[in-house]
Design brief:
Elements: E1 3-9, E2 23-28, E3 31-37, H1 41-47, E4 55-59, H2 71-80, E5 87-91, H3 94-105, E6 114-118, E7 125-129, E8 133-140, E9 146-153, E10 165-169, H4 179-182, E11 187-191, H5 199-204, H6 210-220, E12 224-228, H7 238-245, E13 251-253, E14 259-261
Parallel strand pairs: 3-4, 4-5, 5-6, 10-11, 11-12, 12-13
Antiparallel strand pairs: 1-2, 1-14, 2-3, 7-8, 8-9, 9-10
Length: 262
């Protein structure tokens, strides 16, 4: 069974240095889940030859623009391409109001059913259960309400010794309260906007440093840490990786187009 992640964008706030804004595509046994949808996401899907049509679920972590400004464009492109299959969208309840205004203003009536699921942004909760996997959401500590996600296999394929799992912690300050929700996941994506010498600025902006992301990975006992959501102040990301590896050796940098088989 396939369980893989493609990074479509790994920068924060604005695109820079060929790094697009937050977007990740998770393939769970050919069920394609888009996690966040920053501006330009549909271009990234085209660039890496990933089909719009095969996306069945979209998870939006929070309503900062670099995590959802690409959504209306993607939904409209799906419409123009003749999509008929239903699409499930999970997000802050206010996002549906935003989308309704955009669709009404352009007199667009989507060709396909868009099924909206409001997230509970205050507690750990089941978002979706299918025969082969589950998705849970949990609150993140950010400047606006934000939701992290953890996707877990129910039963592993014969040749895989244990169920695989992926946790996504987008914008968040350092917060050990999330550890019970992400414990022992195979792959953890944790934002690492800044280096440790900017820890105070990170805390003030409700972001994390690479060192802090590594501390969470270590305390949660995860298999691998994927660093992302990098500040545009950094062209060279190797110093962030070095800081993380000093705490948690199995750390890697996100990069647009990176494919990870979990």
């Amino acid at each position: 069974m396939t369980f893989s992640l493609t990074v479509l964008g790994c920068n924060s706030a604005i695109p820079a240095y060929d790094r697009n804004l937050s977007a990740h595509l998770l393939n769970v046994n050919e069920r394609f889940i888009l996690i966040d949808c920053g501006e330009g996401t549909q271009f990234q899907l085209r660039k890496y030859h990933l089909s719009f049509r095969r996306i069945t679920h979209i998870l939006i972590s929070h309503l900062h623009g670099d995590h959802y400004f690409g959504l209306i464009g993607l939904l409209n492109s799906m419409h123009l391409l003749g999509r008929k299959e239903e699409l499930h969208l999970f997000a802050d309840a206010r996002l549906m109001e935003i989308l309704d205004i955009q669709l009404q203003a352009s007199l667009t009536r989507l060709n396909y059913p868009l099924v909206f699921h409001p997230l509970n942004l205050e507690k750990y909760h089941l978002i979706l259960e299918e025969d082969k996997f589950t998705i849970y959401g949990f609150p993140l500590r950010h400047s606006i309400p934000a939701c992290g996600f953890v996707i877990r296999e129910k039963k592993p394929p014969r040749k895989i010794p244990s169920p695989r799992s992926f946790a996504y912690c987008s914008d968040t300050a350092y917060d050990e309260a999330i550890i019970p929700f992400i414990q022992h996941v195979s792959l953890l994506y944790h934002e690492s906007t800044f280096m440790q010498n900017m820890a105070r600025a990170a805390a003030e902006k409700f972001h994390s440093t690479a060192t802090e992301a590594a501390r969470i990975a270590l305390k949660a006992g995860v298999g691998k840490l994927l660093l992302g959501h990098f500040s545009a102040r950094y062209d060279d990301l190797e110093p962030l990786l070095e800081e993380a590896k000093a705490v948690f050796a199995n750390s890697i940098l996100a990069a647009d187009g990176l494919l990870l088989n979990i």
